[in-house]
Amino acid sequence: MVYFLFINDSLPVSLVMQRFISSVSSFPLLAIPFFIMVGSIMNYSGISRNLLAFADSLIGHKTGGLAHVNVMLSTLMGGISGSANADAAMQSKILAPEMTKRGYDVAFTAAVTATSSSISPVIPPGINLIIFALLANVSVHSMFIAGYVPAFLMAASLMITIAFIAKKRNYKPSREKPASAKERFHYFGKAIPALLIPFGIILGMRFGLFTPTEAGAIAVLLCTIIGLLIYRELKPQHFVQILRETIQGTSSVMFIIVGALVFGYYMTLEQIPQNVASMLIGLTDNKYALLLIINVLLLVVGMFIEGGAAMIILTPLLLPAVLNLGINPVHFGIVVIVNIMIGGVTPPFGSMMFTVCSILRVRMVDFVREAAPLLGALFAVLMLLTFSEGLVMFLPNLFN
């Protein structure tokens, strides 16, 4: 606004304000409040609890069982809520108290909860996947499909790290012995309605039954039906709180998008994206070296700026250089999203870190100490994804 008011006065202020309003007059952006609402409905509908029981039946018997369940629940939840902060808050209230009661260190519990929540937005229908697709003008369907392999790699890396820590500290399993096949089938049967939601969304988009925006509305409808008629835990009085949480979540995201899009207008007028692209291309003509430089930039920026805002501001700056060196924009998008999700767990401004630390009353220094090995595992996955385009693009190439 300082730029438009005092530096470049060639545009009327009314036209600039019109940009603020028109920037969100976008049909695809309707997907954001829909998927935020899905995450809120899950917490009242019994979906979270049934997914938790199913995850516990699968791996609760392992050493450090509840920590493994924490990671698996985030992976299962990601296909429905797609929100890291919603996942972190939900698990801090539902699973974390049980972990501390079973003898897990509260700082370790907070670290597992925050780092595992970084998986949720990488699995469809993650909001960041939708936003990046709009920014980079790529297929939302391709971004959705590309998210599965990275998300499962993140989950596997966290679970391997947790296994070593749990064995060293002798964290007890949540079950004395593995669940029987009959018991696992029972919990799987109860979780099927919830598990079918992400597959229904992907298949519906794949076969052209609905757009990504309409998929959000379908997901809200399905979660509501499941909560009301199948699990029967969703009550009419819950909808006031669900709407309140949806409005609050949507408002914070939309203010970032509005500000960033107008900021992008300023950058276009000053030709900043072209200059940054030229500078980056001048540094290297190797696409992997460029991705490494971008990773370092995003990790540093992510320590000080909220991940979604960083992605919205930096993507238009970096994309011209990326495309010039022949980097697939879908591959680039996955690298960016995984990167900013790691930033959400790192100090000093990691949003998931603040969420779990405030709910569980953990000091930041204790959190960072416990999160360090888990963050190391996520960094390793980030490097693997950066240098393995074929790994990221395997599913999109298979289904397109």
Automatic annotation (TrEMBL):
Q: Where are the transmembrane segments?
A: 20-42, 143-166, 187-209, 215-234, 246-268, 288-305, 310-327, 333-360, 372-395
Subcellular location(s): the record lists: Cell inner membrane
GO-annotated molecular function: transmembrane transporter activity
Report if keyword tRNA processing is assigned.
no
Q: Which residues form the signal peptide?
A: none
Domain of life, source organism: Bacteria
Q: Name one GO cellular component term.
A: plasma membrane
Q: What does this protein do?
A: Part of the tripartite ATP-independent periplasmic (TRAP) transport system.
Q: Which protein family is it in? A: Belongs to the TRAP transporter large permease family.
Annotated protein name in UniProt? TRAP transporter large permease protein
